[in-house]
Design a protein that fits this description.
By secondary structure, the chain is an alpha+beta fold. It contains 7 helices and 9 strands, in the order αααβααββββββααββ. Helices cover 50% and strands 20% of the residues. Keywords: Coiled coil, Membrane, Transmembrane, Transmembrane helix. Pfam families: DUF881.
Length: 239
């Protein structure tokens, strides 16, 4: 009888001890509260909704392409294969791009010219930041100083010179052609660039970033170098 009584007391005290430990830990480490105001939360929500809308558009586009390929493949497999190859070459950058977009000009700032400051190459890190922002703003393709950017392109500092695809860039002024899916997206890209901090970042390096008005017929030359594929081999025609 006494043993059962003491056991119950022990269990009750153990439970009370655990509850007090949890309560103490909660008091010592309070849950961090979200300190953002309502407008910050609304802006983040709006960004997520825009991202969700863009994903839905891409899914619809891919579904339409898949249906078109299925219909063409049933009637003419050769045509479907040729269209697929042409589309892949266009996506990779092996064909000349002609379509809507904008042109950017990087040129020395008036202060640098007035003071006779020695011109320096555009810093690779700053150029990479610009390229990443352009793709984030829905650019589909671009060329820097006539060097077409593809998925394997690299921007590096080689012996003090900024290079794209292994080719040294010219000193400012130099042009950057940017292609977009539609003229509306080109206008939106221009607005996003003007609202970003990139213009100030270039200005700190004595470079002015000018953005042209959106155009319907931006021309971007195809990628001039060979595309190296590590894990694929071309089959002989007799195979």
């Amino acid at each position: 009888m006494n043993t059962s009584y003491y056991s119950r007391i022990t269990i009750v005290l153990f439970i009370i001890g655990v509850m007090m430990a949890v309560l103490y830990n909660t008091v010592q480490q309070p849950v961090e509260r979200d300190t953002r105001d309502i407008w910050e939360v609304r802006e983040e929500l709006a960004q997520e909704k825009r991202r969700h809308s863009d994903l839905l558009k891409e899914i619809r586009t891919l579904n339409e392409v898949m249906k078109r390929y299925e219909n063409v493949a049933q009637s003419s497999p050769e045509v479907a294969l040729r269209e697929t190859v042409e589309r892949l070459e266009s996506d990779v950058g092996l064909t000349t791009y002609t379509g809507p977009g904008v042109q950017l000009i990087l040129k020395p700032s008036p202060e640098a010219i007035a003071l006779g400051t020695t011109l320096q190459p555009v810093p690779p890190g700053l150029l990479m930041q610009l390229v990443n922002s352009l793709y984030e703003f829905k650019a589909v393709t671009l060329a820097i100083d006539n060097q077409r950017m593809i998925h394997t392109s690299a921007i590096r500092d080689i012996n003090g010179k900024t290079t794209v695809n292994g080719k040294p860039l010219a000193m400012p002024p130099l042009a950057i052609q940017v292609g977009t899916m539609t003229l509306e997206e080109a206008k939106k890209l221009k607005s996003q660039l003007e609202a970003s901090s990139l213009i100030d970042s270039f200005y700190l390096d004595d470079v002015i970033l000018e953005i042209s008005e959106p155009q319907e017929d931006v021309v971007i030359a195809k990628y001039a170098n060979d595309v190296h594929v590590d894990y694929l081999q071309q089959m002989d025609k007799g195979d």
